[in-house]
Specification:
With 288 residues, this protein is mostly helical. Helices cover 73% and strands 0% of the residues. Helix 6 packs across helix 7 and helix 7 runs antiparallel to helix 8.
């Protein structure tokens, strides 16, 4: 009869403590918001999904490590946990900004407002817990055992997430060829980056018949050039000859296009840093 092995370090190490904190804080956030009954619409749904999703997956990670069941899974566990912690940090950070700006109305008073404020504080602390996990699990210089825990790997998760945010803001781009090109840039780079993440977690990169490091350098260079064109063309074609509407509400096209502009710049910087790190890894070798 097999006896389950319990690994207490899964919950007593610094990484385990960070994960336990994230579970408790995410649970506190969505419980308080659910008790108010005010989380309707796409923004509220997104925030609730974020907290619930991060709570469930982090709890599952803790249980699998506590019972030492993760080695039986057909995936790279270190890559999976590194990618998830980075994704969770980004998602919870977004929810921590979106929820108070959408649902907390000034002047704020009463028990409902207090619960919303505590939920926001819990969400911010949850982000810090995931950020701490990312810092604790990040690969040290020279350690290539887990690609997604390295700086280029974490940047891949960031690039894919920012692209998802861009897709959520896209609106009225079919009338201009320049805007269509920008959407093509976002889509192509997102798909390739997502495939790199999936293949890394699924341990499929070894089947690529060419050096992975050089492939990543070439892809990052191409993605950087494509994003440079999108950074120029998107604001040019979005705002040319069009003034900001007055009033410009939450779903105003101007705000959405401005958001896409800034997110495009963020991804441009991410691909630039990614290219620098990848190039340094391939062409600048440390002396033996």
């Amino acid at each position: 009869m097999a006896v389950a092995t319990v690994n207490l370090r899964a919950v007593t190490s610094w990484v385990g403590i960070a994960r336990l904190s994230a579970v408790v804080l995410a649970c506190l956030a969505f419980s308080l918001v659910a008790s108010t009954g005010d989380f309707g619409g796409p923004y509220g749904t997104w925030c609730m999904f974020t907290w619930c999703f991060c709570f469930a997956v982090t709890l599952l990670v803790l249980l699998l490590e506590l019972l030492e069941l993760y080695p039986k899974l057909p995936l790279s566990w270190d890559d999976f946990t590194s990618a998830f912690s980075m994704l969770a940090a980004l998602m919870v950070f977004t929810a921590s900004v979106v929820f108070p700006s959408t649902f907390i109305i000034s002047p704020c008073s009463g028990s409902k407002c207090a619960r919303q404020a505590v939920a926001t504080a819990a969400s911010c602390l949850c982000f810090l817990a995931y950020a701490l996990e990312v810092g604790l699990t990040r690969a040290k210089p020279g350690d290539i055992s887990s690609f997604l825990s390295t700086v280029p790997g974490l940047l891949k998760v960031f690039e894919a997430y920012v692209a998802c945010l861009i897709f959520s803001l896209l609106d009225n781009y079919g009338s201009e060829a320049g805007l269509q090109w920008c959407v093509a840039v976002y889509s192509i780079c997102f798909i390739v980056t997502l495939l790199i993440i999936i293949f890394t977690i699924g341990r499929c990169l070894s089947y690529i018949p060419c050096p992975l490091e050089k492939v990543l350098v070439g892809y990052n260079a191409l993605a950087l050039m494509m994003y440079i064109t999108a950074t120029i063309l998107w604001p040019l074609y979005s705002f040319r000859g069009r003034s900001r509407p007055d009033p410009c509400g939450r779903d105003c096209w101007w705000n959405k296009h401005l958001g896409v502009t800034f997110l495009t710049i963020f991804n441009l910087i991410a691909y630039l840093v990614d290219l620098v790190y990848s190039t340094k890894t391939v062409f600048i070798r440390a002396p033996p």
